[in-house]
Amino acid sequence: MDFILNGFMQAFVLLFSGNAETYSAISTTLCVSTISILASLTIGAPLGFLLGYHDFYGKKTMRMIVDTLLSFPTVVIGLLVYAFLSHNGPMGRLGLLFTIPGIAVGQTLLGLPIVVAMMATAVESLDQRLKNTLLTLGAAHGQILRTTLWEARYSLVLAAAAAYGRIVSEIGISMMVGGNIKWHTRTITTAIALETGKGEFAMGIALGLVLMVIAFAVNFSMSGIKKRAGQP
Amino acid sequence: MKKIKVLFLALALVSLLVAPGLVKAEEVLMMATTTSTDNTGLLDELAPTFKKDTGIELRWTAVGTGKALKMGANCDVDVLMVHAPAAEQKYVDSGALKDRREVMYNDFVIIGPAADPAKVKGMSVVDAMKTFAAKKAPFISRGDDSGTNKKEISLWKLAGTSVPDKEAWYIQTGQGMIKSIVIAAERGGYIMTDRATYIKYSATKDGNPALKVLVEGDKTLYNQYSVLAVNPEKCKNAKYKLATKFSEWMASPKTQKEIADFKLLGKKLFIPNAK
After folding, report:
1. DSSP element (H, E) containing B215
2. In contact, A169 and A147? CB cutoff 8 Å
């Protein structure tokens, strides 16, 4: 029991004394997750919107594929990305292995299905009367599209939050693709795995606290938006 | 107006977060190494000096020797620091790696609970291994094809017992050295480790660890660390010049002294022996 309390004590010391190693892991995590979430949204939001907005042949199948991808194990993503980015792999020449952009590639793949699926569901579940109302008001096609986009804005934020939660807390991709390199690709999660493995619980607990704060903060800031989006 | 301000702030924040990931340093040498050189803190000690002396930034990923060698053959790194001479030779012979240079050594020890339930204290390595197998004493193995794991497997063979695998008393962790020692301490089992990592583990336990050294001093337990460069003929991207610089720097009298001076609990972790 002692070492746990000690861990918490030391955790606060590490955090408030501005320990360089701790903050390096924190900034790496924030950097990687920011790149990943921006990429996920840039690619995923339009795709999700199109998937929800348009009716086309094979739409159901597409939705099923996206929903299946939601449960893609992160370890397998890590494995695939490692194989692709390795110098013998198809994208080896980019030199992305063991770099922050490399991890971001993997985490973008993790975030994409979440954004696409949530976005598509949100657009589909927008009140069906919206489109009809707009049509009777004599809106042009472009205007309908714009209004629908605007109505789906809260859902987009929610999708971003859900994806961010997954991205910030995953470890498989960061470990495999990033290589847990000190000062460069050591993220909060890989650092926790390393430090607890070394029996250095203080550092692990300190980083764990930070990760929890980030996760809670994202969730908490979403509660207002959830209400607006009409979700419980 | 307010919206524009918020947008501008958000953009500034994002670029601040993203910037560190996109900065590329000029001279970076990527190394794959064993968990012992990393876990003990030796590389944390050496890397800043290396940067000061040569201007090259050393980055390393700590994996077992087996995986490190594969990373070298895969062209994913530029240089290796590993400890499995026989396996290293295979990669040199195949042309994937070159310029093997011995830089330092320490030795392997078998550690176990102070109470020593299997009564192996002071035995020769071969007798100790036979005893573990006969008494089914819990034995923790890295099981990850690392240098230490390769050595341990060779010891089972040396002792004339079959290499255990599925036996209930044989616990394969698949993790790094310190992690495996911590698991051995939790399970009250025996484990073979390099002495440097054992000293590091003792230091985290304030010099009074649960596991004590029980078997040591055999010639077979000698543990040689070497630096190898990835062959630029096989790997176009390999920074062979930087790797050579690192290798020479490791063997220089100044660095060799720094390795000798690297101590925990007043004990040397690695003993320099570059020729």
Report:
1. strand B211-215
2. no
**Residue B215, C-beta contacts closer than 8 angstroms, at least 6 positions apart:** B109, B110, B120, B121, B122, B123, B124, B125, B128
b/e map of A62-99 (b: 16 or more CB within 10 Å)?
bbeebeebeeeebeebbbbbbebbbbebebbeebbbbb
Query: pLDDT tens digits, residue range A106-142?
Result: 999 999 999 999 999 988 888 677 777 888 888 888 8
Q: Report the predicted TM-score, pTM, of the whole model to 2 decimal places.
A: 0.80
The partner residue sitting opposite A199, judged by closest CB among B75, B178, B237, is B178
At residue A231 the predicted structure's pLDDT band, cuts being 50, 70 and 90, is low
Nearest to A181 by CA among B228, B147, B77: B77
User: What is the average pLDDT across B139-166?
Assistant: 93
Angle at B205 between CA B200 and CA B210, to 5 degrees: 100
Nearest chain B CA: its distance from A88 CA (Å): 6
Whether the CB-CB separation of A160 and A49 falls below 8 Å is answered with no
Residue B136: name the closest of B110, B161, B101, B100 by CA: B161
d(CA B144, CA B71): 15
Segment B147-163 shows an average pLDDT of 93
CA distances from B161 to A129, B185, B191 (A): 77, 25, 17
Residue A232: predicted pLDDT = 46
Angle at A103 between CA A100 and CA A108, to 5 degrees: 120
- Judge: B75–A92 Cβ closer than 8 Å, yes or no: yes
A184 touching chain B per CB within 8 A? yes
pLDDT single digits (tens) A148-169: 888 888 888 889 999 999 999 9
Contacts of A216 (CB under 8 A, 6+ apart): none
Q: What is the pLDDT of residue A196?
A: 81
